[in-house]
Amino acid sequence: MTAFKYSIAIVVLVVLLSCNVEAQRTMQFRTSMNCYRDGCDFNSPSNWVGSVAPSLPTDTAVIDYRGTNPLSGGQVQNIYSKASHLQIGSLTVLSDENSPIVLVELGNVNIAGNLTIGTFVTVQPAKKSTLTVAGNLTILYGGSIYTEYQVTLSVLGYSIFNQSTVQIQPSSYFTSNGAYFLGGQFTLETQSTMALYGNTVINNSQVTTYDYSVVQVDNLLLTNRGSLQVTGNFLATGNVQLSLYSSIQLDFNSSIFIGRGASVTLGELDIQGSLTLSDYIPYTDIIGPGSIAQLILNAQKKGIPSQITAYIGDVDIGNITSTGTPTTADLTFDGTISSIGSTPVSINNAIITVSNSANLNITGSVSLSGPLSQIVIQNRCSFSLYGANLTSPNITTGADSSVELVGASIYTGDLHINGGSSLLVSKSSIIGNVYADSTKVVLGQGVEISGGVYLTTQSSINLAVASLSTSPTSASISTHALELNDGSLSLWVQDPTQLQVGSTYYLVSSVGNILINPTQCAISFTLPNNLSYSFQVTLQNDINYLVFNVESN
């Protein structure tokens, strides 16, 4: 009885081992045949060593023509599969310059493991077919995939495109759990979709999509002159990073959504290359935080009104240029802190808006030209220029906002400061008029205003200077007009102990009117008890001056 049990156990073990061996079969394609003229059927047993064709989800299929068919003289080896459904474990196709391989008319194929496409190998899924790879897809140097139209290429693992060529025909779908593009070209044709989950790297590769295509990525890194050109919709749900000389470009009928929307979030945005937006994009929204070395506004509509709209959050922009002259470029900065600078910026018909309690800093040279250009600082927002040059027809603030100019030059039509806002100007020049309504204005040393300064509705002006001059040619502040209706003026001096009794100090010079009632003026520092002061408007050589006198009691 015991011996019988052992016999059963041995039989079971032999059966299990046999099943296991069969479950892990490696099938070698017969490369002694020349498949150039009539082609070879992938599913024909006679074309495989052992006369058994791969057909199980555990079968490993290998087609290796390397150095085995020199008589073919470089003729293309056509291997086809017309089966309605093919299921195998993995597929590796290899060749060399003597025997290029083309796999044509692959029907519905399900690969349980990996798909490896070698040098001089081209895989061509048939129209309206599905190619599913449960493992990883690897295309080696010189390998390629060319699909027909309406093909679904689904990679559940990772995809590696190593100096290869991939072309996805119209109305197709490609998805992968992350991808690495190393050199080569990847093309997504019209009305196709590419969804890349996880991490995607475009390294010295060109990824191009055409009309009405959709590209969705989680985390994206473009490096070493990698480029992504989208003609359709681009959706990023994670981090987007671009190294130097890399770029993202969005063209005809495209829209880019980076960080805004119910289902969209974005971490850091690091674009050391360029981001190009066209007037075919409804709007662009970049929350950040991050930086863009160059933002290009590209107008492509010819002869008809065009507009480029962008919402920019916590993003530092080095340069903004416009090409093709859009009718309007509407840029709204709505993050906590944003900046424009480092290199000259020139935009035609641009409306720059600071909203959502944001702070926009300009540190370079920004020129807004055209009759539609203006800068709007909305309620509770900040706008700062540090050592910058700004040209803009109009600058307007909302309520409770602030404008700060330090070492800056502004060429503007009108500067309107409204509703409890503040304006600080130090060592700067303004070519234009300043209108302040219910606001606080602080003018520091070395301020030159070629237009007039007009303060209304209980506005206040504070002259804050490091030192005072007794020479009329060296007045602390120069303007073409100064009018203070019903507000107040105060003077602050850095070191009051340097004031001399009996001296007259020239605060403001103006070739136009200075309409200030001296009773509206006061000092914001303390004089010794034996001294007093007075303010006075005088006319000397056709120039009006606001002067400050120090007197003894």
What does this structure look like?
This protein is mainly β and 553 residues long. Among the domains are: 158 residues; 76 residues, no CATH class. The chain contains 1 helix and 53 strands. An 8-stranded parallel β-barrel has the order 17-18-20-23-26-24-21-19. A hairpin with a 2-residue loop joins strand 52 and strand 53. It starts with a helix and ends with a strand. The relative contact order is 0.04.
Quickly describe the structure:
InterPro entries: Autotransporter_pectin_lyase_C (IPR012332). The N terminus is likely disordered.
Output the keywords.
553 residues; mainly beta; 8-stranded parallel beta barrel
Total of helices: 1
Which band does the percent of strand residues land in?
Answer: over 45%
Low-confidence segments, ≥5 residues, pLDDT <50?
1-21, 259-268
Strand line-up of the largest beta sheet: 17-18-20-23-26-24-21-19
Euclidean distance between termini CA atoms: 132 Å
Architecture blueprint of SSEs:
Blueprint: H1 2-23, E1 26-28, E2 40-41, E3 60-64, E4 77-80, E5 85-88, E6 90-94, E7 101-106, E8 108-111, E9 115-117, E10 121-125, E11 130-133, E12 137-139, E13 144-146, E14 152-155, E15 159-168, E16 173-176, E17 179-188, E18 193-203, E19 206-209, E20 213-223, E21 227-230, E22 232-236, E23 240-242, E24 247-250, E25 255-258, E26 269-278, E27 284-286, E28 290-298, E29 307-312, E30 315-323, E31 328-333, E32 337-340, E33 345-348, E34 350-354, E35 359-362, E36 365-369, E37 374-377, E38 382-386, E39 389-397, E40 402-406, E41 409-418, E42 422-426, E43 429-437, E44 440-444, E45 447-456, E46 460-465, E47 477-484, E48 488-493, E49 504-510, E50 514-515, E51 521-523, E52 531-540, E53 543-552
Parallel strand pairs: 1-3, 2-4, 3-6, 4-7, 5-8, 6-9, 7-10, 8-11, 9-12, 10-13, 11-14, 12-15, 13-15, 14-16, 15-17, 16-18, 17-18, 17-19, 18-20, 19-21, 20-22, 20-23, 21-24, 22-25, 23-26, 24-26, 25-27, 26-28, 27-29, 28-30, 29-31, 30-32, 31-34, 32-35, 33-36, 34-37, 35-38, 36-39, 37-39, 38-40, ...
Antiparallel strand pairs: 49-53, 52-53
